[in-house]
Specification:
Elements (H helix, E strand, L loop, with lengths): L4 H16 L6 H14 L2 H6 L4 E4 L2 E4 L4 H9 L4 E4 L8 H12 L2 E4 L10 H5 L1 H7 L4 E4 L6 H13 L4 H5 L16 H12 L7 H7 L3 H7 L4 H10 L4
Parallel strand pairs: 2-5, 3-4, 3-5
Antiparallel strand pairs: 1-2
Helix pairs in contact: 2-5, 4-5, 7-8
């Protein structure tokens, strides 16, 4: 029976996850992980620019760090690495896991999507998640633009109780985020909270748990084709 394109893609993804879940206990495996990180996961660009920025005195945002950048983060006092991408189908993953283990960095997941409506249960759990972290913490996605920006905005709004407009500055072109493409659904998520919650005196947590409709956000959010082309084909965002 012939598999559909989607099934074939999922099958390849599972093989990649299984491959990079193994320890890097041979030179060949380590070499393959580095090559995959640099060329397949576009890590070559992150050697030049990590898109690393402070969000507060105890929370930082960045692109996927290289092993050397993770070691530098540990030297700078970072205690926790928050992985926003999953990314277990890339060579970056076993390298990151290995450095975190060797340097005593806590590695935790809070997986987000850059092009889809944020999951209600995941966002509702954010407050407890932030409370559980050992700070200072560094949150990263692949490019440090979209999911890192969303997580930083969420951190400021939920954990530090900052105003919405201040939190939204984390979703900005200066970090490489573009709201005119599919990634703009992250901006629209917060704008819906403004209209449906904030302006009516409803707390963010209550809005997420009782009013927020991910399906409606997915259905009603519109982009333009050239913006999607830029994000998907040129910048190759996840």
């Amino acid at each position: 029976m012939k598999l559909s394109t989607q099934e074939q893609r999922e099958q390849r993804r599972r093989r990649s996850v299984a491959r990079w879940n193994k320890p890097l206990n041979t030179l060949w495996r380590r070499f393959r992980a580095w090559v995959h990180m640099v060329f397949v996961d576009h890590g070559i660009f992150r050697f030049i620019y990590l898109n690393l920025h402070p969000v507060s005195h105890k929370f930082w945002r960045a692109a996927q760090p290289t092993p050397g950048q993770l070691r530098q983060a540990a030297r700078d006092g970072i205690k926790t690495i928050v992985n926003l991408r999953g990314g277990r189908e890339f060579g970056s993953w076993p390298l990151e896991r290995e450095v975190c283990e060797s340097k005593g960095l806590v590695l935790v997941d809070f997986v987000l999507r850059s092009r889809g409506a944020p999951d209600r249960e995941r966002i509702a759990s954010a407050a407890k998640f932030f409370e559980s972290l050992e700070y200072p913490a560094l949150a990263h996605c692949k490019s440090g633009a979209d999911r890192a920006g969303f997580m930083s905005a969420l951190y400021l709004l939920v954990h530090e109780k900052r105003p919405l407009d201040e939190a939204l500055r984390q979703l900005s072109w200066r970090y490489g985020h573009f709201k005119f493409a599919k990634t703009g659904i992250l901006d629209e998520f917060f704008e819906r909270y403004r209209r449906e919650g904030l302006e009516k005196g409803i707390s963010f947590q209550t809005w997420v748990e009782t009013i927020y409709d991910p399906s409606a956000l997915e259905r009603e959010f519109k982009t333009n084709s050239w913006g999607d082309w830029l994000i998907d084909r040129v910048l190759r965002r996840e």
